[in-house]
Amino acid sequence: MTVGSFASATGVVQVGEHRWKGDVPPGWDIAGNTNGGVLACIAARALLEATGRGDPVTLTAHYLAPGRPGPVEVDVEVVKAGRRFTTATAVLRDASRPLLSVLGTFGELEDPGSVLVDGDPPDLPDPESCVLVPATETFPPPFMGRVELRLHPDDAGFMSGQGSGRPLVRGWFRLLDGEPIDTVGLLLASDAFPPTIFNARLPVAWTPTLELTVHVRARPTPGWLACRFSTRFITNGFLEEDGEVWDGDGRLVVQSRQLALVPRG
Fold this sequence. Notes:
Largest sheet: 14 strands, antiparallel
Shape: globular
Structural class: mainly beta
Number of domains: 1
CATH architecture: Beta Barrel
Distance between the termini: 46 Å
CATH class: Mainly Beta
């Protein structure tokens, strides 16, 4: 089987008892910095290999410095190996400094059925009726050429300077060329969309993530993912962004929250 672009970009090779290496290719960047979700996925693949588990269940990433294309290393420490879950930490670094510190719990996701679902997937037009976010050298960033992202028409106005006035972004997400999305790919989906505050009529500029937490609830069915990201509080130079990702069967597969800095004008 041919390894897809995303799987290849986030792949790792073990080079020591507690160390893995990866290589971030160009093109996965935003304003010259590698997308934070890509870095989290590289760390997650090393953690999955170290723990011997199949899926990330919960992962928290603290961003220490921007990443650039090139080689990276991931140092992993298993904190506890239990019967159902294994918890481990990792630090991802480039040649000069640490970029990312991660704590995660890993296991095997099963589907015993839902007990309570007090929510619904976002109300989206079909993907062909949504607005494709194209890749450019500046804005939208090159990263958009590595995935396919289609925004709800009501949430795409910021691209022409006409933000909706609501810190809300909804849309469809998938990998290119029919590459299937595994549970590591769900981590990428949680950090692939434009920041919500682009629609709050604040500066459209680099919005650094300080911390990202992702709860993976289920393995997704193949196809498009329906995504919704919203912000309620923009205070003291910070904002939170809450995310939901639903698969084609209408199942919630990811919840996320990140804390980011308000971009400077």
